[in-house]
């Protein structure tokens, strides 16, 4: 597949995705569309290289207990419950926003029985770490699910709305202390986007990175920080228990079960960044192998076990494949790179 040069501000939106972000679209998406539903295409009608569902390795490019690890293990469990993959195994390769795992994965040419979890953090990791490899060194399979950040404060905070936060923040931009995940993470970028929408320079943000929602909450309760941006599923139990106050969620609509927490958009601040997750195939796999992998992933996504995982983790289904997924990668990369530049990273 021909690859276009890297995009710049002069490239129109209708242009093909850039060389770095486009990747190699899973030709399986075209194959599945041509032959119709999964009932007319079975993974058991395997290629000469065998049935990929018999042994499948899922790489989580992060440590145990992290977001990608949870996503990979929920996928593994759904595959096992519905017997969609006979021997699905999860392997962790942590580091550098997923780019350590991506770098190793990019050398697995033709290794169709291995897939790599990806998402917003990897988009940021590629840009932040100036990674020599990107999505074009893989085969794009599917964007699967996303979750949303929520802005939280200590339960006794005097601030109850985004307007309250922005008003106080403008009075002392650098004196307001924020926390969330690592520098350049979705948490950090969400705060940056909110700052820009509120007329505050992203370079004025004072941000203390933490390893997760639990640590972020401790800084709020101790008074070390004023506000946090965290994944909703990381802190939902603490919101429910009343330990922290949810001021706004960066979602298109309110989260089920937390109907009293307004979205940021409802409050006039359209924060569009989401923490999406999906799957990549190895470079140089065949169209038939792509089709097999997409068939397994499609059946997993449609399973009752996966629907339960979506509900438990407060994830939203955002299934995309083929050209649609490639175009999304292009747009997300542009958005993330712009925010990182605003932050001076």
Automatic annotation (TrEMBL):
It holds the Pfam family TctC. It comes from the Bacteria. InterPro entries: BUG (IPR005064), Bug_dom1 (IPR042100), TAT_signal (IPR006311). Belongs to the UPF0065 (bug) family. This is Tricarboxylic transport membrane protein. The lineage of its organism: Bacteria, Bacillati, Actinomycetota, Actinomycetes, Micrococcales.
